[in-house]
Structures are given as C-alpha cells and as structure tokens.
Amino acid sequence: MAMKYWEYEDAPLKEKLKTVNVKDVAKIFFENETEAYRFATLILEVKKAKELRLKNVPKHIPIATAKRYLDFGVEVGLLKHENSSYLMTDRYSKPFKNIATYIKAWQESEGEEDLAIQFVSARTEKQGKRGGASTMHSKQQEKSAEQNP
Fold it and tell me: For the chain, is the Cβ count within 10 Å smaller at the N or the C terminus?
C-alpha cells in the first residue's frame, strides 16, 4: 500500500475531505497508475450501482482482473462479497481511522468523477492475450478447416 502523510495526520485530512475523489482512494492501495485506475473503476462501479456482479464489469477490464481487484477490496475492508455481488462496506481498525474517514466521505459524496482525467497516464485498453496457442498455429488451423470442410 502507498501510505501518505495525510492519511495519519488530522489537519491535512480535514483539507483533503473538502474535495474527495476516487483517485485518492485507489492511490492509497496502489502506486502504479494502471492498477489504481482499474481498482478505481471497479469501486466506482460498485458505488454507482450499489452492488456489482462480475458479469456487469466494464468491458475494458477482463473478468479475472476484476475479480482479483474486487477480492483485494474485500481483503482490505472496502468491499464485502455476498450472494455473488460486491457491495460497499467500512470495516477499518483504529490505525486506518483517517483512511476510513476519507473513504467514507468519498462513498457519501454525490459528485460525478471522470477517471480519464484523474488517471491520465494509465493504460485503459484491454490487454492482449498472453500465452496459449500462437496466432500462426491458429491461422494454420483455420486454413485446414477451410480446405477440408
């Protein structure tokens, strides 16, 4: 996790609570811009829809990736998983009091957020296939199928 000074200090926290956004929530847990973007996208979807099922995950995030990030949200106490759905929750202990206060303020905020502006340098496209049958092998199978109907 990428802990920052304001997450423990009361005065900077009060300043941060004036303008809450999902980017700061995601950046608490992920330093990498792309990872933070994916996590932010998913928890924002949970917040908007009140619950999120894996079949309703945005198309640009693979299901396995979404499951990994949503399960991480459950592990850190931001989400809960019930009846095949992910829901918002707030299960934080005292050391994370200020983080919990910030996240709670974000959950209750009504403002519209644009992730494309907040995560400018994140890779937002779906990642290509890794491993498995090569494209050369697949093309050969297609040709043989066309020749031998």
Answer: C
